[in-house]
Specification:
The protein is an alpha/beta fold. The chain has 2 domains: 217 residues, Aldehyde Dehydrogenase, Chain A, domain 1, CATH 3.40.605; 178 residues, 3-Layer(aba) Sandwich (Aldehyde Dehydrogenase, Chain A, domain 2). Helices cover 42% and strands 18% of the residues. The protein contains 16 helices and 16 strands. The strands form 3 sheets. Strands 10-11-12-9-8-13-14 form a 7-stranded mixed sheet. It has a 6-stranded mixed sheet with strand order 5-4-3-6-7-15, with helices on both faces. Helix 14 links the parallel strand 13 and strand 14. The longest helix has 26 residues. The protein is globular, with a radius of gyration of 25 Å.
Length: 440
């Protein structure tokens, strides 16, 4: 159906894109309470306020930001023409890729389904969405919302389990966007490669937090725990491991207790996720900062992760924060180098010199100083990972570029110096070519 609509109607005009983005924002606002309730039921207690902030507000701001700026993003861009070809004119025009497939995860199922749709529609594409089967009520509601806001000629939703998702990844999309775990991301990339489908992968990783000698330990602990508590740590950019430079583990634990932030608002989403966390923490020493709540509501815990343990190797993705002492900044940088590239490196107490040194010696999707997590909600800041934490960028202009292709346009003049070099060449062609080369 989407291919037929594309063949019949062509690319989506910019006024229509702006109209669709406005409709999507309005639909999300209108259905915000139903979305929050569906996600609460799907996860056994997801906080309404966290859904409104992290899913609804982020999505609406992204849609409204794209609507304001899409005309500027879509302008053709003049390109210089070499001397020998003048007076030709050349420019590049962003054009939509076509039909974009989007596979969304369960942890932020609204935001991570709809923000890629915002990027894709702003670029003029039609979209097929595969929501996570782990949140069935939310997925069903998303399907209805997308149809209401965009219509069946612009967007379609495919519901189903993991087998459907695997088949979805094997389709001949013009671009495929996947958000989820690194191992599943590898499988998605391999499936897409069979059809030469370009991919954008938003994956995970162990986001380190460097607490340096210049840090106010009480403030750093409070900011780190605030980021870790969001969605019970089930966030790809959540702080994973704190690397203490010039501070002791005991002092950091005392600062965490003084912060009095012990219990997330939202639970661990499923019993399977609880079992995974327990297996991951086996052999590590856990220090809960308070008592657990009802159901799957788990208190934030600090952990000592022995080198090489599962907790040291794998992304935690839950309300457990690993803490390690690093004797020097170089030891902390070496820890980062031993692990796959993270989505973000968080810094507390870094001088400008230290920040520059970290920037030069590490690789990551982002470096963030003074807070954690919330940079991912900036609608005009490109978001993505590096290496095992992701491929490509979304959000704002970067998302528009991800789902666009630059089509080259050239308009030649009636004469140019290069024509003197056409076959059959005249006797003076050699002199012309040699002079052109000499100009380089």
């Amino acid at each position: 159906m989407l291919r037929a609509a594309e063949a019949r109607d062509g690319a989506i005009a910019i006024p229509r894109r702006r109209e669709l983005l406005a409709q999507l924002a309005s639909s999300v606002v209108r259905h915000r309470e139903a979305l929050a309730e569906a996600l609460r039921q799907d996860t056994g207690g997801r906080s309404r306020l966290e859904t409104l902030l992290a899913d609804v507000l982020v999505t609406v701001e992204a849609a409204r930001h794209a609507r304001r700026h899409v005309r500027r993003w879509a302008r053709p861009r003049r390109v210089s023409v070499p001397y020998a070809f003048q007076p030709a004119r050349a420019w590049e025009e962003p054009v939509p890729k076509g039909i974009v497939g989007i596979i969304a995860p369960w942890n932020y199922p609204i935001q991570l389904a709809l923000v890629p749709i915002v990027d894709a529609v702003a670029a003029g594409n039609r979209v097929a969405l595969k929501p996570s089967e782990a949140v069935p009520r939310t997925a069903t509601l998303l399907a209805a919302l997308v149809e209401e806001a965009l219509g069946p000629d612009i967007a379609r939703t495919v519901l189903g389990g993991s087998e459907v998702a695997a088949e979805f990844a094997r389709q001949r999309w013009d671009h495929l966007m996947f958000t989820g775990g690194t191992e599943t991301g590898r499988k998605v990339a391999m499936a897409a490669a069979a059809n030469l489908v370009p991919v954008t992968l938003e994956l995970g990783g162990k986001c380190p937090v460097l607490v340096l000698p210049g840090a106010d330990l009480a403030r750093a602990a409070r900011e780190i725990l605030a980021g870790k508590a969001i969605n019970a740590g089930q966030t790809c950019v959540a702080p994973d491991t704190v690397l203490l430079v010039g501070h002791s583990r005991a002092a950091f634990e005392a600062a965490c207790r003084a912060a009095r932030l012990t219990l997330p608002e939202s639970p661990v989403a499923t019993e399977a996720a609880v079992a995974r966390l327990e297996a991951l923490a086996a052999g590590a020493r856990l220090t809960p900062l308070g008592p657990d709540g009802p159901g799957r509501l788990r208190a934030l815990s600090l952990a000592e992760a022995p080198p090489g343990s599962a907790l040291d190797r794998e992304e935690i993705f839950g309300p457990v924060l690993a803490v390690e002492e690093a004797g020097t900044l170089e030891e902390a940088i070496a820890w980062i180098g031993r692990h796959p590239r993270p989505l973000a490196i968080y810094l507390f107490g870094a001088t400008r010199h230290e920040e520059r040194h970290i920037r030069l010696k590490t690789r990551s999707g982002a470096i963030v100083a003074g807070r954690t997590v919330e940079y991912a909600a900036f609608p005009d800041l490109g978001f993505g990972g590096s290496g095992a934490s992701g491929l490509g960028r979304t959000h704002g202009l970067r998302g528009f570029e991800t789902f666009s292709e630059l089509r080259a346009h050239v308009r030649h003049g009636r004469w140019s110096l290069s024509r003197l070099c056409d076959l059959p060449r005249k006797r003076f062609s050699t002199s012309v070519i040699e002079r052109l080369v000499a100009r380089q």
